[in-house]
Amino acid sequence: MTLAQTITLNNLELTRFFIALVLLLFSAYICSLLFNKIKLPRVIGEIFGGLLLGPTVFGYLFPDSENWIFSAYPSEGQLLSLVSWFGLILLMFVSGVEIRGTFSREDKRTAVAFLLGATILPFLIGLAVSRVYDFSSYAGPNSNPFSLSIIIGIAVAVTSIPVISKIFLDLKIMGSRYARIVLAIATVEDSILYAGLAIATGVAGASAPSVSSISLTIAVTVVFLVSGLLVLPRILRWLSKSKARFLMEASHSRFALFLCFLFVAAAALLNVNIVFGAFLAGIAIGTVPQDTFAKATGSIKKISLALFTPAYFAIVGLQLDLIHQFDIVIFLGFLLLSSGLKIAGALGVGKLIRKSWLSSANLAIGLNARGGPGIVLATVAFGAGLISEPFFVALVLIAIVTSLITGYWLRYTQSKGWPLLQEDGVPSKG
Q: How far is Cα 402 from Cα 44, in angstroms, rounded to an integer?
């Protein structure tokens, strides 16, 4: 088969693809506007827009029409999947870029303590629970006990940087100590948990991965992590000051995208999950002096948020089948387990370092918003065949519910005039 034969689509297939894409983008746009009007995150509106067009609503009422638009030809589904992957890659790249500047030395003690109590401890307990409770009925076709345990641990511990950032901006508390601490914890947490996701997908497919294959996957992931966090930023900073800086300056946007896709390709070749590659490339770009790539990354972000990211979240909603695949047992059970461990861990460590109950509760609920990373975890794990469709649906819904709870709680706290943080019993506005 020639390359031309591989990529050629007939007129009907192209027509259906563009109809599907236009409907998804329109529905995502309208729903995101409506959700924003009622003070809810736009991302949840975009998912809801896809949900309306999927088997839950449109497909249930008009199954033949839904099948004709979205499902009839494999090539159309592959094109939508490709758009979704571009959206996910650019979302992770932008998330990595925006990590810079969230750390505060004076809040290091609090951040480290809550990282241990609200992330590491819940992750370890999640691993242990997966060994005690039989989750095999929620495993995907490529899953094994090791990879499934990691996915469950991550699902328990994950926090969303984009969603909580949007909530902080809406409430005008982005510059507060509370926001800095939550974002600092979420930044380190996401780096660790995406590395764990890369390991889980790296050993997917083996019914019983050997110790050597697990060790090799961990070693490759760690080397890739170190390369992205330490080596690449130094190379970029050197390049920005050397005579070869014209490679950057010729087109900052092109260079940034080239680096993103280079790391994505390298991750794929090393059998490391590609979203981890995009995330690390974004972090590396973010370490270069801000004026170098600020305009370029801003342009990439605008394009991503205008087209690819809404398409990605809408396609996530399109995949949700709440009529046939919603399992209330796994949804409620895992919601209570994950939120309970996250909040209990935060409250416990808050007590140990003598934070007030209100401060600890605010930090706990802020860190419990799973948002975008929770959805990324669900889609990547489901796409890799590590979890079943009911578990995928449950994880996406949990990400939505916990994000809504966080937004409502922080707004309620603000409306009551309660401080977000209190030091030694003395009220503080942030």
A: 11
Q: Is 393 left (phi over 0), alpha (psi -120 to 50) or beta?
A: alpha
Helix 290-303 vs helix 274-287: crossing angle, to nearest 10: 140
Tell me the mean pLDDT in the region 327-338: 93
Residue 421 backbone dihedrals phi, psi, to 5 degrees: -135, 145
pLDDT band at 208 (very low <50, low <70, confident <90, very high): low
For 286-313, the pLDDT digits (tens) are 877 767 777 888 888 888 878 888 898 8
Report which residue type is found at 294: A
Cβ partners under 8 Å of residue 375, min gap 6: 47, 313, 316, 395, 396, 399
Measure Cα distances from 104 to 127, 155, 170, 347, 354 in Å. 30, 27, 22, 21, 20
**Helix (H) / strand (E) containing 124:** helix 121-132
Which three-class secondary structure state does DSSP give residue 130? helix
Burial of 269 (0-12, 13-18, 19+ CB in 10 A): exposed
Q: How far is CA 106 from CA 48, 103, 164, 359, 368, in A?
A: 40, 9, 21, 17, 23
Dist CA 207 CA 138 (whole Å): 15
Model confidence at 225, pLDDT cuts 50, 70, 90, reads confident
Specify the pLDDT at position 1: 46
CB 154 within 8 A of CB 196: yes
Give the whole-angstrom CA distance, residue 422 versus residue 426: 6
Cα separation of 273 and 410, whole Å?
A: 34
Q: Is the pLDDT assigned to residue 422 strictly greater than 70?
A: no
Task: Look at domain 100-308+325-428 and name its CATH class.
Answer: mainly alpha
Task: Specify the 3-state DSSP secondary structure of 299.
Answer: helix
Rounded to an integer, the average pLDDT of 7-23 is 81
Six-digit token pair at 266? Answer: 């390298």
Greatest CA span in the chain, whole angstroms?
73
Q: Go through the chain and tell me how many residues it has.
A: 430
Distance CA 228, CA 414 (A): 38
User: How many other CB atoms sit within 10 Å of the CB of residue 360?
Assistant: 25
Q: How far is CA 166 from CA 40, 169, 171, 211, in A?
A: 10, 5, 9, 42
Percent of the chain with pLDDT over 70: 87
Predicted local distance difference test score (pLDDT) of residue 327: 93
Q: In degrees rounded to 5, what are phi and psi of residue 139?
A: -85, 150
In this predicted structure, what is the pLDDT of residue 16?
86
Return the CA Rg of the chain. Answer: 22
